Amino acid sequence: MATLKEIKLRIESVKNTKQITNAMKMVAVSKLRRAQENILQARPYADYINDMLKTLKLKNTTTSHPLLTDISGEGKTALIIVTSDRGLCGSFNSQIIRKAQSHIKKHFNVDIICIGKKGYDFFKTHSKKVIDSYINLFNEMDFSISKDVAEKILNLYLQEDYIRIDVLYNEFKSAIQQDIIVKQLLPIIPIESENVSKLDFLYEPDEDTIIEELGRKYIHVDIWRIMLESSAAEQGARMTAMDSATDNAADMIDNLTLFYNRARQAVITKEIIEIASGAEATQQ
Question: How far is residue 193 from each of residues 55, 190, 200, 248, measured CA to CA in Å?
């Protein structure tokens, strides 16, 4: 049985853990708020570019630009897996990794690109298909960083004969809900929209140049949006996990305190019995 000193040290240790988890929860709340603001700012720009690309694709254009042209049949594909750089966020990363493993099993010839340290640490030891990785990007969350990543992915698609590049990430819904999304990143499939112009256009300088520029801008913004979504989902998951850990620590402190009081009462009772027995023995 643990001594009173050991129980007291245990209570202090749990109290310190509770302070840490509560502080991490508050930090996650602050980061989540900033990520949500960035998402709201990024979405309108991405939507406008999407509408323009959708208009171009529906105009029976004569171009066959690789950014918009689907390639049928079998061929080499790539999967971008977006996880976090840090843990302590519940099942946020494990769910992504399980989904990625399932996707890879269904598609034979898949190269892996990891954004986030947790995904890279897992797949570098469990797969020989990791061709590129980007870690520690979520510390700064700057558009210029995501733009560099997007450019490398675009050049990889255009130069390495991939028929498709998919992306797998956690989409932020709320602090307690994140949806795992698998979507085709390249070639671009514009989202269905009602804001498609019915007018005929004259293109200047030319159609391919416009598609190239719009397509690159769309991928830049989409990678940025995906990173923001993943970051917000991560902070939401961490906030929930740390809130649960704080509550569990509080329950453990209550239980340990009760156990400590009972043990101390038992010691006091034992000492009283020993004193009473000693006094009774001296009187005889």
Answer: 9, 8, 18, 46
* The CATH number, out of the four listed (3.40.50.150, 3.40.1380.10, 3.10.180.10, 1.10.10.970), of the domain defined by the range 22-240: 3.40.1380.10
User: Which secondary-structure segment (H or E) carries 113?
Assistant: strand 110-115
What pTM was computed for the model?
Answer: 0.84
For 21, 22, 23, 171, the CA distances from 245, given in Å and listed in that order, are 7, 8, 11, 24
User: With bands split at pLDDT 50, 70 and 90, how would you rate the model's confidence at 35?
Assistant: confident
The residue type of 75 is G
Q: Outline where the chain has alpha helix (H).
A: 4-58, 92-106, 117-126, 143-159, 207-283
pLDDT tens digits, one per residue of 124-157: 998 889 999 999 988 878 888 889 999 999 999 9
- Both tokens of residue 56? 């171009």
Q: Are strands 77-82 and 110-115 parallel, antiparallel or unpaired?
A: parallel
Q: Indicate the range of 103-107, 150-154, 188-192, 265-269 predicted with least confidence.
A: 188-192
Q: Which residues are catalytic?
A: 89
Residue 191 has pLDDT above 70, yes or no: no
CB atoms within 10 A of CB 226: 25
How large is the average pLDDT for residues 165-186? Answer: 89
Q: What single-letter amino acid sits at 5?
A: K
Cα distance between residue 238 and residue 227, in whole Å: 16
Q: What is the DSSP string of 30-71?
A: HHHHHHHHHHHHHHHHHHHHHHHHHHHHHTT-S---TTT---
